[in-house]
Design a protein that fits this description.
The protein has one domain. Helix 1 crosses helix 14. The chain has a two-stranded antiparallel sheet with strand order 1-2. With 447 residues, the chain is mostly helical. It is built from 17 helices and 2 strands. InterPro entries: Bact_Transport_Assoc, DUF418. Keywords: Membrane, Transmembrane, Transmembrane helix. This is DUF418 domain-containing protein. It holds the Pfam family DUF418.
């Protein structure tokens, strides 16, 4: 899941059409490029693997799958999504600041831009059939983050711990509601097995839990049916993906808003503080690396080991769920991922300042500059490789084998993106989005 670029720094004459880019902040494009490539690590299993596929190896330390998964959880899971949101938040300021400095309002232009992004997200989820689309959420939440863009950085940054705690409480209350239904169901089953006739209350408990189970915990028969749909025609795949995407975009939208909003606000704060624009010293970035990895890695490793021991499969998870009303270890998640994400970014800053990996940095910059196009390309490639109407490789690969394709896509985009930008000013989808935002055809081919 990536975000399209919003870090354009433009010089626009009020009477003229929107101009081509005059300059960009290279390091933000590089960070976006890293986020784009990194998020494919986390997305590709959802394109390619059936439910519960990890249960056969997620406690098997002799399995290559186990160690690849461990690295992904420790270094990337949650961190790339946080990085997306953070860079997107910085992009809100970048998109609007030059226009507002010249005395013009950027409000309608920005909101029109976000409306189009939301519509792109709906198309991405329901036409290209990617259940993990993030464009829709960024379009909606970006409109909300825009309201806070002029707030002082210290207040913006406070949103992260506040939202982390509020999110933990909200999620706990949500899970406790489900747990209550599960305990009612267990009580009804025990009554039934003892030979007693079930009353209206018990029958309602059975029905309520069955509804939750079908949505969140498919049984083995349903997993087989779902896999068959994913290996079927476009209509078959759509019949499985669209309801889930719809629930995520509407039914559970309220649970998605706060995390992304807080991280966008953090991005605005870090931009204003100069963290994202190389205004910190190397010593400050190095200190961030030591703190981020020094505190974040022990936390995430502990969390990974804890979850591996206690939640290897659905049965053990339900048993834990039955006896524990609160999973306190989950409180670690938001803090460790922010710490490690900050360390990742600081490490990139130091490498860039020192002039290391110049060719790779140039490739990442181009990937970040065409991130919208490259993000959609991920979905097109993966759906055509794994879904039934493509090469039909769904549920056919080992987990570790997925990363051969990931590396192949990385290499392709790192090579092709710089070549594309030699001849064109934007990626094709960036250009289309720009035309729709400004309401007129924009320059595209480099002269």
């Amino acid at each position: 899941m990536s975000l399209p670029t919003t870090t354009e720094v433009e010089q626009i004459d009020p009477a003229s059409k929107p101009s081509a880019l005059v300059n960009r902040i290279d390091i933000i494009d590089i960070i976006r490029g890293i986020a784009l490539l990194g998020i494919l690590i986390l997305n590709i299993p959802y394109f390619s693997m059936e439910e519960y596929s990890s249960e056969s190896w997620n406690q098997d330390t002799s399995s290559t799958n186990f160690w690849v998964h461990a690295i992904n959880v420790i270094l990337f899971e949650g961190k790339m999504r946080a990085l997306f949101s953070m860079v997107f938040g910085a992009g809100i300021v970048l998109f609007t600041s030059n226009k507002e400095k010249s005395g013009r309002s950027a409000t309608w232009l920005f909101y029109k831009r976000m409306i189009w992004l939301t519509l792109f997200g709906l198309a991405h989820a329901h036409l290209i059939l990617w259940i993990g689309d993030i464009l829709y959420f960024y379009g909606l939440i970006g409109m909300l983050a825009f309201v806070f863009r002029k707030m002082k950085p210290k207040y913006l940054a406070l949103g992260v711990p506040i939202v982390a705690v509020i999110g933990f409480i909200a999620n706990t209350l949500f899970m406790q509601n489900i747990r209550e239904k599960y305990l009612d169901y267990k009580e009804a089953i025990a009554l039934q097995e003892s030979g007693n006739e079930l009353g209206e209350k018990e029958m309602a408990a059975l029905g309520a839990w069955e509804e939750i189970r079908k949505e969140m915990i498919p049984n083995k028969k349903e997993v087989v049916e779902n896999t068959a749909l994913m290996k079927g025609s476009y209509a078959d795949v759509a019949s499985h993906i669209r309801p889930k995407a719809w629930d995520g975009q509407f039914k559970y939208l309220v649970f998605s808003i706060w995390d992304m909003l807080a991280l966008m606000l953090l991005g605005i704060a870090l931009y204003k503080w100069g963290f994202l624009t190389l205004k910190w010293t190397q010593a400050q970035y190095i200190k961030t690396i030591w703190i981020g990895y020094g505190v974040g890695l022990p936390l995430v490793i502990f969390s990974f080991i804890y979850n591996t021991i206690h939640f290897p499969n659905v049965e053990t998870a339900l048993a834990f769920f039955e006896t524990h009303s609160i999973n306190w270890v989950s409180l670690i998640y938001d803090f460790q991922r922010i710490l490690i994400m900050m360390a990742h970014v600081a490490l990139v800053m130091v490498l860039y300042q020192k002039g290391y990996f110049t060719k790779l940095m140039n490739g990442l910059r181009a990937v970040g500059q065409t991130a919208f196009t490259n993000y959609i390309m991920h979905s097109v490639i993966c759906t055509l490789v794994f879904f039934g109407y493509g090469l039909n490789q769904y549920a056919e690969w080992e987990y570790y084998q997925l990363y051969y394709l990931v590396v192949g896509i990385w290499i392709f985009q790192l090579v092709v993106s710089p070549i594309w930008l030699r001849y064109f000013m934007f990626g094709p989808l960036e250009w289309l989005w720009r035309c729709l935002t400004y309401g007129r055809i924009q320059p595209f081919v480099r002269k």
